[in-house]
Design goal:
Chain lengths: ~280, ~375
């Protein structure tokens, strides 16, 4: 049957591979390799990359979220606890905020999500998450801590939604693992879910949906007030008004609410302006 | 769309009781893995190699196809039944047909961009949808080319989403038919050339690389989690066409490459829920109760209207909460042409007094929580 092809045999010397040119959508800082690159490139790259790619590179966040984070980026090795306000119920928004925090990093770095059982994939892309760099372990079961620890070793940002309150011992171990690996750990859950002092606590305080009435319109955007409290260098409280999501699903800063941390009446005017913008 | 090499072994398509076919097929996969970094078993008797990397490495599609055919030929003397055809084309579906055409002869390589012309003369039975093929043949639509020539809105109106997808596959604009893949990637993650591989032909370096690399670190961590849980517990998400938020998501086991990502989610999908999309979409909708001011369940009429304004909501038997705002219902009547697959649904968005927004579905006389805008 294979008489003809049998004559051909394997190629004796494959052509030297130089690897394709980097694609425009790749972040050169990230150190991601194009597929199928050859040995020579890989060996060279391995010699020059390790320290620069992993340690010095900070993890970017979406511009509207930058005011919430010390230095305007996700710090490698830090733990960020994200909580919906009001003791769990509230207006929600925690899941959106947690994924929004890793959206910019996913465009070039490896991200993972452990225990987010039913992610809305369309919403993730609307938030700006690059699905190609998102490793999902939706149902880790009883092994969630071990899975998280393992991913912390290899990825750049890991989002963990623990099944309940994390014991102090487990929390300490995970925080240490994140610090050693230089990976950012984002923990999603009620404030009490993460007992250990997080480097940053981000809480959704208020949320209000726009665009929907009683029997007309549809959900168009949600205005949230997000509060961030840090420790050590970031020991300050910052409040930001955000669209989460905005009309097209992304994150936006509420126009005119730039006075961060200000709690005054001027914001209400800005809010009315912004609602009009949103409704367009 | 990803260019694929497919090996099609006609005698191994059905798995026998004694497992001989499965063992032979494993030998075929192993033979291909001696030179290709990634071999995807697709279904019994069928496996695929994405050609992008290996073709570049080995000097083109034709050379790669000959290499695969030679690997198969090397098996045949001592593995009865290990014969098959080798085909390369754009997308898994076309490559499969090319491989079927190649059984018993030389490999068939469809040049890049020529896949639509290659597909057009095949009979509609090639779609492997017997009921659909019967119907199409009765309508005088005999070939894939005939199907492609039909206007998309008409196909959508008459046959629905699934056939529009078939049409896109037949046109070569989409790579594979849903449900064609039956097998999952092998349990052992790929790593560098293992012991026993020495002496094999030149091997294309894997995606995770054999060197210290950021991707390699990520790959090792993923492989460790796969060993800890199960290979299928680690997934990547991709987008596809569909109306509901759940239908548009597809989770595929993590295999190490960006396969399937970047698929075209376009296409006509009237009745889509308007953006923004909910960030939590339940794999299995949970029961909900939506009641009006008098405590009666809110009903949706045949005309797609609600008879009373919703006032209270209870999820999964939980406490009642007040409904502050709502929109819809938006009727969804899918697969109306098929009595079995028919789903009559209506969707509503509901915001509770606490400010949480949900997407509810009315189906079979009950309300279901489909998604939450968390």
């Amino acid at each position: 049957m294979f008489d003809k092809v049998r004559q051909v045999g394997p190629l004796s010397s494959p052509p030297v591979e130089h690897g394709p040119a980097p694609r425009a959508d790749q972040d050169p800082r990230s150190g991601r390799r194009p597929l199928g690159a050859g040995h020579i490139d890989a060996v060279l790259a391995a010699r020059v990359r390790p320290t620069s790619a992993r340690r010095d590179q900070f993890l970017p966040v979406l511009t509207p979220l930058a005011p919430l984070l010390p230095g305007g980026h996700l710090a490698r090795g830090a733990v960020v606890a994200v909580a919906p306000g009001g003791g769990g119920a509230g207006a929600g928004g925690g899941t959106s905020l947690a994924f929004a925090l890793l959206a910019a990093a996913s465009n070039g770095s490896w991200c993972g999500a452990v225990g987010t059982a039913d992610p809305g994939v369309v919403a993730l892309t609307e938030l700006g998450v690059d699905l190609r760099h998102l490793v999902l372990v939706p149902r880790p079961g009883g092994q969630w801590a071990q899975v998280t620890a393992t991913l912390l070793d290899g990825l750049d940002v890991v989002l963990l939604r623990p099944p309940g309150v994390v014991g102090p011992g487990v929390a300490r171990r995970l925080a240490a693992r994140a610090r050693d690996a230089g990976t950012a750990l984002v923990v999603l859950g009620p404030a009490r879910a993460w007992p250990e002092g997080a480097d940053l606590r981000v809480t959704v305080r208020h949320g209000r949906w726009e665009g929907i009435g009683t029997g007309h319109g549809h959900l168009r955007c949600r205005r949230v007030e997000v509060e961030a409290t840090g420790r050590r260098a970031a020991a300050r409280t910052v409040v930001a008004d955000l669209w989460l999501p905005g009309p097209s699903g992304g994150v936006g800063a509420v126009a005119g609410a730039g006075a961060i941390g200000a709690r005054d009446d001027a914001r209400d005017d800005a809010r009315d302006d912004a609602i009009e913008q949103c409704g367009e | 769309m990803e260019r694929q090499l497919v090996v099609w072994c006609p005698t191994l398509l059905e798995e026998g009781e004694r497992g001989r076919e499965a063992r032979t097929f494993r030998r075929v996969v192993e033979a291909l893995a001696t030179f290709a970094a990634r071999v995807d078993p697709v279904r019994p008797g069928v496996c695929a190699v994405p050609t992008r990397g290996p073709s570049r490495y080995f000097g083109g599609d034709a050379a790669l196809a000959e290499l695969a055919a030679a690997a198969l030929a090397g098996l045949t003397p001592d593995v009865p039944g290990g014969t098959g055809g080798v085909g390369i084309a754009d997308g898994l579906f076309a490559a499969g047909l090319a491989a079927r055409a190649a059984v018993g002869s030389r490999p068939v390589v469809v040049p890049p961009g020529r896949t639509p012309a290659f597909l057009a003369p095949w009979p509609v039975t090639a779609l492997d949808r017997p009921d659909l093929a019967d119907l199409l043949l009765r309508l005088g639509i005999r070939t894939l080319g005939d199907l492609v020539a039909l206007p998309v809105p008409r196909v959508l109106a008459r046959f629905g989403d699934d056939v529009v997808r078939c049409q896109r596959v037949a046109a070569g604009t989409e790579g594979e038919l849903p449900g064609f893949r039956l097998l999952h990637p092998p349990r052992t993650p790929r790593s560098g050339p293992g012991p026993g591989r020495t002496g094999a032909t030149a091997r294309q370096p894997g995606f995770w690389g054999d060197t210290a690399d950021v991707d390699a670190r990520a790959g090792r961590a993923v492989a460790d989690v796969q060993r800890l849980l199960d290979p299928e517990a680690v997934v990547r998400a991709t987008l596809q066409g569909g109306r509901g938020p759940g239908q548009r998501a597809r989770f595929v086991p993590w295999t190490g490459r960006g396969a399937g990502a970047g698929e075209d989610p376009g296409g006509p999908w009237p009745g889509r829920v308007p953006p923004p999309a909910p960030v939590t979409v339940l794999e299995r909708p949970r029961p909900a109760q939506l009641a009006d001011g008098t405590g009666r369940t809110v009903a949706v009429s045949g005309g797609g209207m609600i008879e009373a304004a919703p006032a209270r909501l209870s999820l999964d038997g939980g406490p009642w909460v007040t409904v502050a705002a709502w929109a819809g219902p938006w009727p969804v009547d899918e697969r109306w042409w098929s009595p079995r697959g028919r789903r009559r649904q209506a969707r509503m968005q509901v915001v509770t007094a606490e400010g949480t927004a949900h997407l509810l579905t009315r189906e079979r006389g009950g309300w279901w929580l489909e998604a939450t805008y968390d």
